[in-house]
Amino acid sequence: MRKAEKTKQFIIEKTAPIFNTKGYSGTSMSDITNATNLTKGSIYGNFENKDEVAVAAFKFNVKKLHDVLSREIEKQRTFKEKLLVYPRLYSNYSELEVTIGGCPVLNTAIESDDTHPILKKYAEKTLLYWKEKLMYLINQGIAAGEFKANDIDPEKTALTIIAIIEGAVMISKLTGSAKDLSSIMVSLFKIIEDLV
To answer: HTH tetR-type domain: which residues (predicted)?
Structure first.
């Protein structure tokens, strides 16, 4: 990596937790300069504006989460086991220490829905990618004879899995209770078990 690329990566890594915790509106330029110990000029020498830093931070947070999930999914042999990675890992989301501040998709989607079209676009693309990935696993499970072919709508099931996960994360954040998250993930385990 060249020095400029290293600096850019450093800025992203240092600001990603701040954007994910405080959101775009709540993150000030002072937050960015304090976290990086760089001047405003150094930040703007690497990024055109705060929007560009926020998008890079979002992508970084999503990649971290995606990489953890993908590694665990690849270790599993059956498609049911692959789907069960989601409730298993999200049951202990705070212990994963993947992204400080919770799920970046949920955080960004909620904050940007009416206020930040650029971030909203990236959150939407991430959500659609997640849906496609889940649909792929479900369709592969059907093709392999693991899941009931006639009783499953892959898109509806994928969206239900996402809605349960994100709803559980939101409830857990509001209540401050990891127990709430775990309890809801038990329901998701059952939904996936019932696909067989």
So the answer is: 5-65
